[in-house]
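Minutes, project check-in
Item: structure for the 561-residue chain
Input as provided by the requester:
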Amino acid sequence: MFLIFGGLFQLLFWGAVIFGIVKLVQGAGSRSEDAPMTVKRLFVFGSLYAALHVAAWGVAGLIAALGEDAADRGEQAAAPLAMTVVGLPVLLLLARWVWRSLPEFRDRGAAFSLYLNLSLVTALVVVMVAAVAVADWLVGGASYSGIAVGAFTVWAPIWVVHWRLFRTEQTSVSNFHVYVGATAGLATMAGFGGALLGRLLTRLLDSGTDVALTSRTHADVATWLVGFAVGAAVFAWYWIQTGMREPRDTLWHTYVVLIGVLGGLITAVTGAAISLYSLLQWWFGESDYSSAVRHFDTYLVPAGGALVVGLIVWLYHRRVLGPVRGDRTDVHRVYDYVVAAVGLVTAVVGVIILVIGFQEAVFPPDDSRASEANMLLGAVTALAVGVPLWAQAWRRINHARRTDDTAEVASPVRRSYLFGLVGVSGVIGLVSLIILLVVVFGDLLGEGGDPLRNDVQIPIALLFATGVVAVYHFLLVREERDVETAREHPKHVMLVTGHDELAAAVRELTGARVTLLHRLDTNGEADDPAVVSAAIESSEYDDLLVVPGPAGVVEVIPYRR
């Protein structure tokens, strides 16, 4: 398992190297004479990352071999010893050279940032997996794993060293790994926490019956407790201690909205739908179990755990995102449209199941694949969960449009949502139509058959549901083409400042496309976004070079591209 992790992250690194070469050498504004230096930096840090892996896994393998029987120890230690003898000297030499040349690498490119982020992510994942295995062994939940002990012993110090290096150089490197770590901690904590909650619900069901519900042992519970503790520790360090103090930039909001809000919402909606379906299926449908206790333990218990965990994750990150105060921003638009999308997809699933059930009721298939009652209950469940969720978010969106039609219609978030739904629905509809025609033509031109009884239920259902979604949102797109927007042709601003957060604030206030030129000196410049934005808005030109100065003076220079 650990060797697989090592190979996976090496593959990810070299993929990132290729991406970095394309972005750094061919990117806008890059100079041709910088390309050799870019390739050099990528090669150096790629070699350093590879040497780190070889040496680390070699030493970890040697530690693991110490726990083997004396007869097998020599054979088990051969490969790790070779990796250590080759990798460790190379690692030390490269690290010593890079450390002496660090100012050059730090100031001239992103290779150092890429290496540091990738090394921290690699070390974190390995340490988390190894920590769960080692702690599970210590509490008696699993057998001894030599490679887990070796991996934790080696990679934990590696993580500490690189974390301290990140803290020292954090002004010149990306903090992407912080949000990856927060995501890993949250997912681990939520997964093992859901298992623990499911165990508790099972015990509650079991306590009032004579039915032996589960074969889970105390060792399983110990594993879940250990996993939850490891995930909670990682989440507390990466998010509560670190991430919450990071600037609220694009990466920060991406984690909160897409990982926290969207991930928690999807988990909660899935848990709610399965929970409701299990109740309806038992009372009105056909269950696979004759015992209510076993039925609810199979479906309701895990779904209830997912519902509770998803709600906690969703509500926590929604609170972190903060309430809407003052003007509506794209951050809050993203939240509303994400909620609307989740609700709409859930409702569309219900419509698809309902249409399939209707077709099978009118044209019964030769082989009944599902109970008609269960299909109807599944459709009712998806609609009961998805429609209110979509309606609530869509009502907020429509209220915002009525309040400020220009800003809402001009928002790239709304445009992405509408065009995305039209595009995805259109593609699914066209594919469904092709499949439908293939089936019909095959039966008509072939040996004959009855496609309405066996083969076309799903294509027809997909075509109907996605067609309705595509038409509705296409009409909205057509309607909004005639809306006059003040931001149809936004200004392009080259902002020269030493305050990175100023660019985001100016972009939000003016709607302009802001390119940040980070100045290395200081002139006592003002960093009031309102003052800078007012100076930009007062200019009649679209292409501006903006240089904030002392005492609130902002120099605005129009230019031609």
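Outcome recorded: Strands lie at 492-497, 513-518, 543-548, 554-558.
No further action items on this chain.
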